Amino acid sequence: MTLALLFSLFPIFITIRNSRFVNCLSIIFAFVLFGWCCSTPDTDIYLGRYYNWDGWMMNITEPIYTYTVKFFNQLGFSYQSFFILIAFMFITCFFVLVRKLTSKVSYVTGLMLVSIFPMLITLQRSSYAFCFVFLGFYCLFFCKTTLSKVFLFAIFITIASLIHSMCVMYYIFCLFYFVNQKRIYKYVAICIIGIIIGMSMVNFLMNEFLSSLNMTKKAEMLESSAQAGNTLIRFILAILRV
In a 10 Å sphere around its CB, with 0-12 CB exposed, 13-18 middle and 19+ buried, how is residue 227 labelled? Predict the structure, then answer.
């Protein structure tokens, strides 16, 4: 139902670019999608971690996310309420950055929704991390001095990486302020090739990696999801989102 609604609205989002009503509709739809995306294959894992917090990965890769889960659980928030709050933070940060950079808000929102929705994963952790990614890019684009740009960007990306470790890839943007402009294209090409190769390797090595972190259930879920859908399409969409 939601997927059918998305693809029926998508042509409107990308063709009517300067309508405040369409812009608001795209943002509201994004908030509903991110705030109520709770029927995905890995939802049970997040529910179990939220209501039976056990220090999962506390000192490994994503401690900020882990402590946030513990904090809101102890405050008495339900999983769905926590999810909606994260979605509100994400959409607010997203809208502020996109509105600052372009008047075609619905166009950008529509492309973002199409690239993320078919991933068939819980959007909570990635949305939480991207709040700080957006803040980092806001500083990178609008701070006045190079030092403050890079410093604040690095801080926000570090915070995002401690929520979702994949955000560490955004450190590459810091290099653009210290590398000769003629070399940037070469580094960008290398990074794109590296991301494609890296994500292809993830397809083969993820199960072993998750098993080594005592996350066998997550590995089984990913394997089941890969059998049910087209893995190549999901990786292409992930690269598009990056």
Answer: exposed
